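To whoever is on call:

I kicked off a structure prediction for a single chain this morning and the downstream step that reads the tokens threw a length-mismatch warning. I double-checked the sequence; it's 333 residues and nothing unusual in it as far as I can see. Pasting both halves so you can look.
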Amino acid sequence: MDKRVILAIETSCDETSVAILKDGKELLSNVVSTQIETHKQFGGVMPEIASRLHVENITMCIDKAMKEAGLTYQDLTLIAVTKGPGLIGALHVGLQAAKALSIAYNIPLLGVNHMAGHIYASRYVSDFKFPLLALVVSGGHTQLYLMKGEYEFECLGETRDDAVGEVYDKVSRVLGLGYPGGPIIDRLASEGENKYELPYPKIGDKYAFSFSGLKTAVLNLVNSLEMKGEEYKKEDIACSFQKKVVDILVDKVMLVLKEYSVKQVLLAGGVSANKELRRVIVERVTAEYKDIEVIIPPMWCCTDNAAMLAMAAYYSNEEFSDLMMGVNPSLCL
């Protein structure tokens, strides 16, 4: 499979992105058109609107990426596109654009898993050393993957209910803070005190996650305080909530490390931009395991973008996709 120059397209949710990667090392362009300001008024992503905005933006993003890279379509050797998971309408926009380029310029096509993209974002800062453990945290996913080799993914545990990023958004809504909730709560938490005792969910599977009860506990806490007429600081609730979330995530990582021998721990997904999570996972892992390296993706590569997808495509061991390829909004890694 010729992967010298990869053009990657990512449209799984609310970012339209196109990137071009050369030889798995040189990122020639990474164009991202975000829809956050549009979706803010709804308190979350509206799938139909997201799809329409992808349609409006995709051609401009492709043109800009090609211009920044200084290439012609004849220079490309592979078209990579997100095939799932994600919003079905949004995924289709990217897929049809990728197929059009593949047909028009006779360039091979490769469908890539969005979550593999998040994991391989860390390749921009470090080579992988196997076996490694990946904690994937985003708006739709909370998972632990053991990788024994290149592009080998074994899911050890995942959320049984809400994903961590989804819970951040819901708690932010309860506190009247706006969307997206992650960066808002992260900022407020740094200004507050951990003064509220919130529950630590207990579930049967030792590597699985559960955040629904924690979300409900925050809702009940706010309702109780307001019904009693007690004053409270949103910063304190944000701090108490975030500390519990980070403890849950990092505790699971530490539990895996007691039973599996790994050389690296890497953080992946949109929630990997959380400053407290980045700090605590490095602090706890390195304090207990001096020989384990913790890999944190660069901030620009935490949220959805095509650069991460291009890197995942470069290391993919899958065969070229044919033009009958469809999307799968529930695609597993």
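Update from on-call: the warning came from a stale cache, not from the record. Cleared it. Sanity check on the structure: The longest helix spans residues 234-259.
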